[in-house]
Amino acid sequence: MLLTSYRLGNLTLPNRVVMAPMTRSRAVDGVPTAETATYYAQRATAGLIVTEGVHPSAVGQAGPAMPGLHTDEQVAAWRVVTDAVHANGGRIFAQLMHGGRIGHVEVAGHQPVGPSAIAADAQVFTPTGMRPAPVPHALTTAEVADQVQAFGDAARRAVEAGFDGVELHGANGYLIQQFLSSSANERTDGYGGSTAGRIRFAVEAVEAAVDAIGADRVGIRLSPGGQIQGIVEDNVPVLYGELLKALPDIAYIHVMATADDEVLMDLRKAWPTAFLFNPGGQIGPEEGTLEQGRRWLANGADLISYGRAYLGNPDLVERFRLGLPLRVTDRETWFGAPNGYVDYPSYQH
């Protein structure tokens, strides 16, 4: 079933294997390079590619050497990437990732922003090494609207750049999840406090993207209950249950295995469109397996995403199809290294 086709919005995917978004830190001044085009084109046999996190505005940049999608130069560079993927028969969504409080003045040239002036209990990447996360500027209510609109503007630019759609990054401790979190959000206006207040930013950001490019081109990634980068969420089943009720019927939700199976299955049952599942769970030593993917398809998932398996195996679909071994990669090459990016060949028989 993993290798059967699936209709996602206005796209027909040849298989249900999705390349999950993974930070690679190889952009130059926020612009993807020719090697970026090669990297994604090599992996175009995936049913769908979701890119690394792309900041929708300058203030949203989370770390050095990460690409953006808010200038004409960035749009033009991404067009080279999407053209290469489409020429190889692939489909590609841009992941819009606003870092929020996960950032640093050394990275973007200004203080990061967040729902409240609370620093993450985490280290952040900077051009001079790891640094404690700084206290962010607490967004005013008017400024929240600007950040919402940034997702809509970036979605529009993504389509201009040739992307088939966008995925909003609502997971892993970045801005959207910061609004959901009781440890990052102590607001007393309409964007905090109650469950309805906490989910409001996520819903409005998705609505802005939908207004810009249409619901069938929009997804969102979620890590319910995931505790990373200082995130704590209260009453996860209720929080995410209410979020799913409030979201428009977009193309998919992309759920990470960060809660127990009962919570995840309830979310599957509650969601009316495609359920994209990442069995690898929270960022850490575990990664998703073929067997886990098959189990979750049997449990009702529609699509399965794989991250690290795609780093060293551009032909992951073919390896799954033929039962071939997977290549393991060196962690030292994941971020910004001169090697370990486009130099992994397909399996040689």
From TrEMBL:
Gene Ontology cellular component?
cytosol
Which UniProt keywords are present, listed alphabetically?
Oxidoreductase
- Going by the entry's taxonomy, the superkingdom of the source organism is recorded as Bacteria
CDD domains in the record, alphabetically?
A: OYE_like_FMN
Question: SUPFAM superfamilies in the record, alphabetically?
Answer: FMN-linked oxidoreductases
Q: One GO MF term, please?
A: FMN binding
Positions of the NADH:flavin oxidoreductase/NADH oxidase N-terminal domain: 7-325
Q: Coiled-coil stretches, from where to where?
A: none
Cofactors, names only: FMN
For this chain, the family text in UniProt reads: Belongs to the NADH:flavin oxidoreductase/NADH oxidase family.
Descriptive protein name: N-ethylmaleimide reductase
Tell me what organism the protein belongs to. Lentzea albida
